Amino acid sequence: MVDGRGSLIHAFVGSVGEGGLDAAVVGGDGLLHGFGRAIAAVLVTTGTSVVGIARDEQRLLAVRDELGEGFTPVAADATGEALAQNVIREHRPSLLVLNAGATPHMAPVHEQTWETFSRNWHADTRHVFTWTRAALREPLAPGSVVVAMSSGAVLGGSPLSGGYASAKAAIRHIRGYAADESTRAELDRDRLSAWHTRFVPASSPFGGHRRHADAPARWSNRY
Is the bond preceding 139 in cis, omega lying within 30 degrees of 0? Predict the structure, then answer.
């Protein structure tokens, strides 16, 4: 893996599964050249079948050429509600990685417009909301893991990137709400349950614990 991040990626993948899973990586541009692509690559090498979702079909096909038949490209807007429902119904992923997001507009708050300030709410936060909702309503199978990527900006703010930090903070709350609703569904209907996973110390940026086959579905958040 490139950029010195290989050990972190492998630690992340090892924390949520041991290969042989079906995964959906909702990566946006990050799936094409960033962190989402690195996650998809390691998942494929562990024997996981990966469905990768981003807008750019040609670049997705290039990722397929690189990663091989274990990677299924889906060119689409990651915030689409019908897309989320269809992917979950058709592929039944055991691991759902939500890593899509927009590049924030870099300017102090008084030089932002509402459109630039809210850019990450309409991409980062919206796709997590959309896929979380679909995962709860289908639902995902017991033992599944949902990982919603956030940012260290949640902890200290990011005054030159508009609504980026607040959009990422909202992802934390959505994940928490989903865990609560999933637990309630288990208690009320014996359908699905969740394990609230907190972020680990700063020595590692990944949240999550090793998945066991008989464990209920759970929700994780990366900071």
Answer: yes
* Residue 196, number of CB atoms within 10 A of its CB: 15
Q: Are 51 and 86 in contact (CB under 8 A)?
A: no
Read off the pLDDT of residues 152-161 as tens digits, 9 standing for 90 and up.
888 889 999 9
What DSSP string runs through 68-129?
-TTEEEEES-TT-HHHHHHHHHHH--SEEEE---PPPP-B-GGG--HHHHTHHIIIIIHHHH
Query: Rounded to whole angstroms, how far apart are CA atoms 149 and 154?
Result: 11
Classify 133 as helix, strand or coil: helix
Per-residue pLDDT of 48-105, as tens digits, reads 899 999 999 999 999 999 999 999 999 999 999 999 999 999 999 988 989 898 999 9
* Cα–Cα–Cα angle for 63, 15, 181, rounded to 5 degrees: 95
Q: What is the DSSP letter of 199?
A: B
pLDDT at 191 over 70: no
Q: Which two structure tokens, joined as six digits, stand for 188?
A: 């009320």
Residues 213, 28: Cα–Cα separation, whole Å = 29
